[in-house]
Amino acid sequence: MVIMSIIQSNPVFRESYQRLVAVGKPKELAIITCIRKMVVILNSMLRDGVMWEAPKAIN
User: pTM value?
Assistant: First the structure.
């Protein structure tokens, strides 16, 4: 359920989810893809010792 909240509030994951659903992928597959994306991002953050930086809004 956490990933659903992340998809709704985080533009990086929201865009990935919406793109997959728009091309006809099942919603479950899009959710699993977002989970994998989150794990990859978290692993690289741990490896590099950096904190999450939210993307800057372009006006």
Answer: 0.79
How far does CA 31 lie from the centroid of its chain? 9
C-alpha–C-alpha distance, residues 51 and 59, integer Å: 24
Contact 16, 22 (CB under 8 A): no
Q: 3-state secondary structure string, the chain?
A: CHHHHHHHHCHHHHHHHHHHHHCCCCHHHHHHHHHHHHHHHHHHHHHHCCCCCCCCCCC
pLDDT tens digit sequence for 9-58: 988 899 999 999 999 999 999 999 999 999 998 999 999 998 877 666 55
Q: Which amino acid is at 17?
A: Y
